[in-house]
Amino acid sequence: MFTKYNKIAFSGILALNLFFANPVVSQQKKVKQTNLDYTQYVNPFIGSAGHGHVFVGANVPFGAVQLGPVNVFEGWDWCSGYNYASNTILGFTHTHLSGTGIGDLNDILLLPVSGKVPLTKGTKEDMTTGYGSYFSHKNEVSKAGYYSVLLDKYKIKAELTASERVGFHKYTFNSTTDNHILLDLADGIGWDKPVKTFIKKINETTLVGYRYSAGWAADQRVFFTMEFSEPISNMALYDSTTAVAGDEGEALKMKAVLDFKTLKNKQILVKVGISPVSYENASANIKAEIPGWNFEAVAKEATSKWNKELNKIQIKADDKTMKVFYTAMYHTMFAPSIFNDVNGDYRGTDKKVYEKANFTNYTTFSLWDTYRGLHPLYTLTQPDKINDIVKSFLAIYEQQGRLPVWHLMGNETNTMNGNHSIAVIVDAYMKGYRGYDVALAYEAIKKTAMQTRDGMDYVQKLEYIPADKMVESVGNALEYAIDDYCVALMAKDLNKTDDYNYFSKRANLYKLYFDKETTFMRGKLTDGNWRTPFNPLSSAHRKDDYVEGNAWQYTWLVPQDPYGLIDLFGSEDKFLAKLDSLFLITDKVEGEEISPDISGLIGQYAQGNEPNHHIPYLYAYAGQPWKTAKLIREIDEKFYSTKPDGLCGNEDLGQMSAWYVLSSMGFYSVNPANGIYVLGSPLVNTATIHYKESISFTLKAIDNSKTNIYIQKAEYNGKPYTKSYITHDMIVKGGELKLYMGSKPSMTFGVKKEDRPL
């Protein structure tokens, strides 16, 4: 059963060794880069309505601080704290999640107030008796590194910017007197509940404190130092609504009302440094990152940081594509977020403080989503961060005994399926990123793959996971098979033959879930029978054999071995017929408890959920790449726009946008760890990836248009190129790929078996 797989895997690895050896050599194409202002195309409101759940506010790339408004919470679509449908603002908080399906964070709320300061929140229906204000989008500005809004109730203009670890507020009041700031540590978003909070006045311009909370992150600890440009004339402390005497207080729901006498220029500036370790470190973060009080200079620097990152990929395209592309690229850099102080200190998942770490520690890893496209994108655009991401994983491994699944603020949430930090590490390793302890990395991926949690005990015995023993058995098993393939890939490169053979067999276990009679991946019971009744259109969220999907969507989740999947169907023709059906069948999902994550449907294909993202590219493996091209254009047209609801599903910390960034350049990482990018249909006319200084790769789509969507032929560095894929090595060496586009499918380009993806 494993013979053919092993043959394919061995040949693939030999090829990959050639691709990844000496990733940067004398063949590098050197291009002088001229920076342009790409922040003008960023619209942070894209994805802020509907199910996009994106963060809106001020931050810098990968910053710990994400400072933005928080609305009155109205349900699932307010997981980030903000939804464009709202007209309420309760205040401005310093941590947010972008594009997740679970609410947490929104720590350390500040609200400037004129007049009386209520201690309870206003409501959607009534903002008069509680704190907070209505606002209008016409008085709201959001751009990369800056946010502002007019609070109607108080006639106060609030402006926000940030550095990596410091939030910077500028409040312009309507008068010089009767002005206050409310500090509320009581409430977060969604699951988040305070456990212990603390506020202390150090002097007339400085507060310190902390907020411990439990939620999705079971034990989150954030410390802060808060510096004001104006002296505090009076501070009143409260535990919820009960007064607390003195200049400091520790309780469950600490709040502070800060009074200010006559203000200069009607303005107050506030710097809020945060730290996972201590408020002393938070203070040091302020001194290191924003020592002065020039708000405009800090905002300009934040925008400049964004522009530097956006310039790593320079495209030419129509106006819509320019806006969607650079907003998408912007969204790919909210997470992972920095999780240590300027001195290197951080708090581990074991809650111990690790001092002066020699790497940048990161958190907020939505790996079930991001291993598919976001992390492969980082190997092209963030080469200076890859080793630190791996080091962050390895630190987590040493602290909790296994690699992260979904890590949030130093906490393992165990959210979603698989062990996809394995795929991220192996992808980095195979692409030549080795600035970490390779032996420890292999130890970590192997030990993590040998856990007995969540059905992995069955996998270790080379068995299927019984559907009557575990919910989401098929979804779990297919994700494990991908990770096991990755372990085998690294084992082979390290000459660990026994491990390679064992994990290759495990990578093949996906075949046990394929029912040749129905041609679907199905749940199998302990007695060996398929689960019945069976409806491939049905979905029961967290109660069936799949994960946020159905049989139509999960049958294709074999990105590590598309040729093996084709064989299961019996022939390429049968595979293609089934794949065609996926996009042509009804777009109605059936069931009383349908997963809300199934969105962005073309037939049963769901662009709004990540396990589907590779599916349009599978046509290339069966010699019909033109069908991929047509679908990419349709997905772009239907599901990506410049409107607030311009994302069709959860952004999921950058994966929804990473798919667009890659696909719009004409390729996608079907296999998340083998360095192969399958060609589709470029939405851009040109794209230049600046991998490192003076090393660039340019893709040109000749005669590209809304009708000329099909690749007719290609040239790489001036020579004919016939393959329906490109390699990581081609990109990082630099060079030029020309794709000649036409209005009719080419029946020759990428069709021959030797031209299909590895």
- Compute the number of strand runs: 40
Compute the number of structural domains: 2
- Mind telling me the C-alpha Rg? 26 Å
CATH class of the largest domain: Mainly Alpha
What CATH architecture label of the largest domain applies?
Alpha/alpha barrel
Q: What strand order characterises the main sheet?
A: 6-7-8-9-18-13-12-11-16
Q: Are there runs of 5+ residues with pLDDT below 50, and where?
A: 1-27
**Approximate helicity band:** 25-40%
Give a quick rundown of the structure.
By secondary structure, the chain is an alpha+beta fold.
Keywords:
758 residues; alpha+beta; Glycosyltransferase; Beta-galactosidase, Chain A, domain 5; nine-stranded antiparallel sheet; six-stranded mixed sheet; 40 strands
Lay out the secondary structure:
Elements: H1 3-20, E1 68-70, E2 88-89, E3 91-93, E4 109-114, E5 133-134, E6 140-143, E7 146-151, E8 156-162, E9 166-172, E10 179-184, E11 193-203, E12 206-214, E13 220-228, E14 234-239, E15 242-244, E16 248-251, E17 254-260, E18 267-275, H2 279-289, H3 295-310, E19 313-316, H4 319-331, E20 337-338, E21 346-347, E22 353-354, E23 362-363, E24 365-366, H5 367-370, H6 374-381, H7 386-400, E25 406-408, E26 411-412, H8 421-430, H9 438-449, H10 456-460, H11 473-493, H12 497-507, E27 514-515, E28 520-521, E29 538-540, H13 551-554, H14 562-569, H15 572-584, E30 590-593, E31 601-602, E32 605-606, H16 625-639, H17 655-664, E33 667-668, E34 676-679, E35 686-692, E36 695-702, E37 710-716, E38 719-721, E39 725-727, H18 728-733, E40 735-742
Parallel strand pairs: 29-30, 36-40
Antiparallel strand pairs: 1-3, 2-5, 4-10, 6-7, 7-8, 8-9, 9-18, 10-17, 11-12, 11-16, 12-13, 13-18, 14-15, 14-17, 19-35, 20-23, 21-22, 24-25, 25-26, 27-28, 31-32, 33-34, 34-39, 35-36, 37-38, 37-40
Helix pairs in contact: 4-17, 7-8, 8-9, 8-11, 9-11, 11-12
